[in-house]
Amino acid sequence: MPTTDHGFFVNNAWLIPFFPLLGALIAAAAGRQLRGLAHIPVVAGIGLAFLVSLGTFASAGPEVTAVASNWMTFSGLDVPIEMRVDGLSTMMMSMVTFVSCLVAIFAIGYMSGDPGYPRFFALIGLFVFSMTGLVLSNNYLLTYVFWEGVGACSYLLIGFWYARPSAAAAAMKAFLVNRVGDFGFAIAIFWLWTVMPGHDLSYGAVFEAARATDPVIIQHSAIVGISLLFFWGATAKSAQIPLYTWLPDAMEGPTPVSALIHAATMVTAGVYLIARSMPMISLAPGVQIVIAVTGCLTALLSAAIALTQFDLKRVMAYSTVSQLGYMFMALGSGVGDVAQLAVVAAMFHLFTHAFFKALLFLASGSVMHAMGDVIDMRRFGGLRNRMPVTYWTFAVGAVGLIALPPFSGFFSKDEILGAIGAVAGATHVARELHLSWSWVYNVIYLLAILTAFLTAFYTSRAFFMTFWGPEKLPSPDDPEVAGMADAHGHDAHSADAHGHGHHEIGHESPLVMTVPLMILAGCTVLIGFICLLTWPVAGGPVEWFDRHMEKTLAFETLGTAEHGFSIVTALLGTAVGVGGIWLAYVMYGKPSPLPGRVRAASGPLYQASLNKFYVDEIYGILVVGPLRAIAWLSGIFDDYVVDRLVTGIALIPRAIARARLAATQNGLIQHYAAGSAISVALLLVVIVFGIGALAVVLGVLAILLYIGSRPRSAAVTTAPRVIKADGDI
Amino acid sequence: MATNSYEAVIRTAAILAPELILLLSAVAMMTLSAFISQPRRFWCRMATWALLASTAALLWNAGRHTDVYASVAINDAMSFWSRLVLLLTGFIVIGLAHDEPSDDRAGEFFGALVMVNAGAMLVAAANDVVFLFVGLELVSIPTYLLLYLSRRTPSTQEAATKYFYLSIFASGLLLFGLAYLYGLTGVGNLKAASYLIPKVPGMPNVGLGLVALVFVMAGLCFRVAAVPLHFYAPDVYQGSPTVIAALLSWVPKAVGFLAMLRALTFMFSTSIELSQKAVMLCWVIAAATMTLGNFVALLQENLKRLLAYSSIAHAGYLMIGVTVAFANGEQRTELYHGAEGILFYLVAYSLMTLGAFGVIIGLRLGDRRVETVRQLSGMGWTQPWPAAALAVCLLSLSGIPPLLGFWGKFEIFASALAAQDLEQSWNFMILAVIGVLNAAVGAYYYLRIVVLMYLAPAGEESRFGGGWPVAASVAACAGLTVLLGVFWGPVANAAREAARDAATRPIPATVNTTPVVIPVAAVAPAGAVPSAKTK
Question: Quick check: helix, strand or coil at residue B365?
């Protein structure tokens, strides 16, 4: 549909990425002058972007697009900077800008005094620019550009304290692992480019071509391959098996970064990509099984790892991986007429998860801030009286994550379980798959319930260990407490960063940090209440969200069927949640010998979980080691073969130039004129009489050259010249 | 009929208002300077005002059309955009030159500079053989003056002499060729001639056409510094003041290629025999020019000489576009690919070359100017901004994405590959491959400077002594190279529109601007057709 007038906000949707970018540029350019005020342009930019996003909400429609500029127009390649303002993108944008805004405000307190303060906010602004660009883009190529953009911002922010070797290594790991995924995404785009008529990579055209049956435009094998490659790309960005290992390490970055990028927004880019491409991927049910199984295994594995971690942020990181796994489970279950339900479930979970997970991370950051950058849960405990706001907001976030009614997480997780249940129970799915694979979904359903139980357990464990039990603070003699010693923990900058807050440990964080916590907690509750309140009116708890998602491009092409609220799933989900909390309470609610006994009883299993099932070590042996060996060999080959060869080849033009060409440039004007005249004459002969005549002429020329090569008269050779010409060399 | 011709004249005059303003200002400046004594600032300001007035006149002219078969000058998209680019680069050149002449010669100097600009714009608008030649000479003759005026050292004199003699030699070749070109159809109007060639049976006389082709091409090769008339470039650039070298590397090259498009490609591509031969000729010239320019540039230590060979090399890349433009016959939809690439590339080339020269103009070592590549070592740290601008320009010259120079090469090479698809001939593919290999060779000497600036220790104390106009010009060049490199859509669209417009030959009866009329003045020489046949 050609761009028509969709109102101010849609026509100017480019403002949404633009404002944060502008803020970032100001913060970067004037950082030295602004110093402690560098947050102002960025927070203002993100805030304005949020307002514009809200403005686009009402005008969103499946076919609403706006062209900001024609980036590339060339024969056979036409890439407009075109934005699609539909249900999916407006939802993502509003969520991203809202959460970013709160996180940026939180960071004002958290990062204050850090020497890299302006750099931090410039990068946050740049990140929001890339992320909003990613979700706004209307074609795969532009999406890819911003996809790389968020990757680069993530790299820079994980390595924000670059002087710390662990942070630098984590940043490198995140970047390299993401490159592996980007590789898949890039191949998918190349492939699409070759199969799309007119090389049109816009979403609308691709989905239409994928669905076309008469004539078939994209072969089914290509659809399967491209979908798989998209998922490959998504596994890196959204931290799924096998490429999830970078995310827990990414916690080396400042906590607001973990909250914003590695929990709420960037890591959902993969989910977004798959959800966006659903109209195509749903044509390949086999790929969807792969997605669902991968998501399920990731969810289970990372939940199992989270059970035993002592680093509060790492628990949250594995929890994020696990919840992302849930989203993929849902997307993978969108087979046949469950497709719409599945996409809505995944996106709703993405939406609610963004709030409560950002909340949990920020609350962890608040704890870390108060504990002098100590994040090991064994070193502190019983903080509920010292940090009441953090305590209560963390509790709300935890309940949201555990998915107890009526909090937002309950409804979203219930939707996902409902979708999996629906596809597992649907007989038509087997037909659709042409094989009897539908039992897979039954297994996934059970594993998802199990994961929900584990989620409840590890979340409550972290909660009880941090806030309950006897009060315990990290001792000031503890070498890890920042401000006391710089040997470990954050380097000198970050010690400065929290300078004033660290003289006394264990105080509630300042308002600028707790207010965002309260707002996010409010959202977690509010979304749940919206679900509850609209339930009777709309006919379903998530119907209000569904209505908005229906305004998504090509959404109507996904299968749909009536799926009522499943009371069994809801009860089951709540029951395992309560069970998990109860178990955690028994073990960690007060000092008890139980954890020790369980540890002893489970033996190697416990060790495996504590050591993250040795996945990093396995990758080290299987992938990193051989690659290092190859790199070493390549290095030698490069130094001794390629380099020598290139240097050798590079000598050839120089030698030719020196030996032959420079001689013609001897600085004598009469030679220049004669050379030109002879050349023109030669060209004339060749052009008019053909190549054959050249032989004759060359003979004549040889005679001329012979005459010319005789000793020149003194008058010619000593022509007065001051410019040193090449022939003189 | 009379009314019609009168109307055509008036319209043409209106179209040429920007040039007329420039010429009148130039004449006034040169005359006045004999009588009043003013500092060079004054003359520089006058020249700037003249360019501003001319720009206003050009913008006022936007969209004004005329009967292309009746006018010596037209205002199609190619004319409009080229003239706009020439005017904007004119500001940059004046900025670079603001401090160059001594006060007593400044009037003539800036007058000549304005005149060169007027001549270049005339070529862009020209639609007539004679008019085209007048425009070309209006570029050349003031250039002799500029070469001689600014400084009277032995090396300047040598450069001026070499340029003068070789230039009139080339003008002679060109004039000879243009006479044959006229003889081909007996029509001076270029659009009319290219309209007639495919329409009239027995046209064209291939032998006549080939002579015209070779000689016109040779004459224009001098302007663009292409083999085999490239010899002057290194010596003249090195010997003349840097500003003049900058001017020489841009304006004559632009007008040369514009003239090739106007006078040759759109006309010769209409006839199969002629276009085949023309492709052959340009193929050889392009390959030889690129290779020679890049190879010999590898040896250079003197910065201006290096940029001279670089300008030869870029003429070679641009000749690929000319080759393609000759191949794109009339019935092709991709008719304009080659021309489009050339026009795009010229914009990129102007910015990056003028920017590179600008930095060299501005940088001083003590009181001396920077002369050799070595003297730039360590500048990246001692002179961060000029060095960054120079680095941007050099990276763009070597074609690193996403700078504008990359997209220029991209368009040119892509047009060659498109022609390859179209003509089913490997020649274009081979030419593109030669071009890419040359770009790789070229990267060596550009990147060497960047490496020296950033990785070598700093030498003598340096400063940027150009004054703010030079700084502003350089900033504009480098900034636009980056900005347009990222958002190159507008440039590409303008280039496409220009190329498409210049290639169209409307059916005569439909283009009359007044409803009354009648085979236009230019078609009258259609009576010359029989005489052409009888030859």
Answer: strand
Q: Which of B457, B484, B249, B234 is nearest to B347 (CA)?
A: B484
Q: For residue B483, which phi and psi values (nearest 5 degrees)?
A: -65, -50
Q: Is B106 on the interface with A (CB under 8 A)?
A: no
- Integer Cα distance of A623 and A179 in angstroms: 14
Dihedral sign (CA A384, A387, A390, A396): positive
ipTM of the complex: 0.84
Inter-chain residue contact A672 with B166, CB threshold 8 Å: yes
- Over residues B503-525, mean pLDDT: 53
Cβ <8 Å between B299 and A657: yes
User: In degrees rounded to 5, what are phi and psi of residue B136?
Assistant: -60, -40
- Residue B173 sits at the chain A interface (C-beta within 8 Å): yes
Q: Is B161 in contact with A669 (Cβ distance < 8 A)?
A: yes
Spatial CA neighbour of B194 closest among B8, B77, B335, B15: B335
Sign of the Cα torsion B217, B223, B227, B232 reads positive
CB atoms A650 and B229 under 8 Å: no
pLDDT above 70 (res A107) = yes
C-alpha to C-alpha distances, A661 to A641, B231, B283, B298, B398, nearest whole angstrom: 29, 11, 19, 11, 22
Determine if the pTM surpasses 0.80: no
Residue range B412-450, pLDDT digits in tens: 998 888 887 777 778 888 999 999 999 988 998 999 999
| Amino acid making up residue A151 | G
Mean pLDDT of chain B: 86
Nearest to A327 by CA among A399, A263, A395: A263
Contact by Cβ (8 Å): B213, A690? no
What residues does each domain of chain B span?
A: 2-534
Tokens 């970013």 correspond to A100
- Give SS3 for A513: helix
- Taking CA–CA distances from A722, the nearest residue in chain B reads B155
B61's CB contacts (< 8 A; 6+ apart) are: B14, B15, B17, B18, B75, B80
> In whole angstroms, what is the distance from residue B400 CA to residue B409 CA?
10
Computed over every residue of chain A, the mean pLDDT equals 82
Largest CA distance in chain A: 111
Whether B281 sits inside 8 A of A70 (CB atoms) is: no
Query: Per-residue pLDDT for B518 more than 50?
Result: no
User: Which of B70, B72, B167 lies closest to B129 in space, CA to CA?
Assistant: B72
Tell me the pLDDT band of B511, cut-offs 50, 70 and 90: very low
Which of A682-691, B329-338, B395-404 has the largest mean confidence? B395-404
Phi, psi of A540 (to 5 degrees): -175, 150
Determine whether A601 is exposed, middle or buried from the number of CB atoms within 10 Å of its CB (0-12, 13-18, 19+): exposed
Measured at the CA of B216, the angle between CA B210 and CA B221, to 5 degrees, comes to 120
Q: What is the pLDDT of residues B95-151, one digit of tens each?
A: 999 988 888 889 999 999 999 999 999 999 999 999 999 999 999 999 999 988 877
Query: Cβ(A497)–Cβ(A490) under 8 Å?
Result: yes
Interface test with B, best of A75, A81, A141 (most B CBs within 10 A): A75
pLDDT score, position A485: 37
On whether any CB of chain A is under 8 Å from the CB of B253, the answer is no
The structure tokens listed for A619 are 């990758």
With CB atoms and an 8 Å threshold, state whether A71 touches B487: yes
Q: What is the pLDDT of residue A498?
A: 44
- Say what the pLDDT of residue B252 is: 95
Q: Is the pLDDT of residue A564 over 80?
A: no
Distance CA A145, CA B322 (A): 34
